[in-house]
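As noted in the main text, all predictions were made from sequence alone. Below is one such record, for Polycomb group RING finger protein 5-B-like.
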Amino acid sequence: MATRRTPLVQTSLVKDFNHFITCYLCRGYLIKPTTVTECLHTFCKSCIIQHFEDSNDCPKCGIQVHETNPLEMLRLDNTLEEIIFKLVPGLREKEGQQEIDFWRKNKSKEISQGDGLVSKKLGLSDEDGDEDDQDYHRSDPQIAICLDCLHNNGYAADNTVKCLMKKFIHCSSRVTVGTIKKFLSLKLKLSSSCELDVLCNGEIMGKDHTLEFIYMTRWRLHSDNRYPMVLEYRPRIDFG
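Prediction:
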């Protein structure tokens, strides 16, 4: 979420710590501080995710974070966030209000596009005006998945289902297959009549299965499977 960052406080106490609690990318205080596990550099969550859309390297030291999916190497630092909120009076309240204002301002755009709402359900963005939703997504165990398009050779519906431009996703492990299907439908701009199947290792997954359940009972059991977990999607085949 692109928001205006809180100006740095120049009191004698906080000034001494500004170097450690500011983001290298936006130069504001770290909001939802997120650490790159490969080099331990920390940035605002929204800043580093946006950076990784165009690069796989750490913006501070230049080390390659991951060959294909750098989001897999990110970890939220809730302890540092609490320290920053205690050091900077009013920062928590100000950022919370900015998030509320942001979502109110962009509500009509989210409804028309749909992606924002589904992204929040996926845990891709925990920025919401509701603190309960925020805490729920932030405290969820995270999982990286790859969504691959599986064509069925000759079925007419194949032409309507394309591959995602960005197939690697970092999201909550509590996300269900049903939500993944909604996400795909919106991203691929599918009509309501086009239904999808989501498969793991060639087996169709039920809509209420969570990613955690699939990982533990389907993906992890195969010793040759690697992280991230790969889910395939295809247009539903009607044998009737």
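The first helix runs from residue 12 to 15. Confidence is low (pLDDT under 50) at residues 108-114, 125-136, 153-157. These features were considered when defining construct boundaries for the mutagenesis experiments described in Section 2.9.
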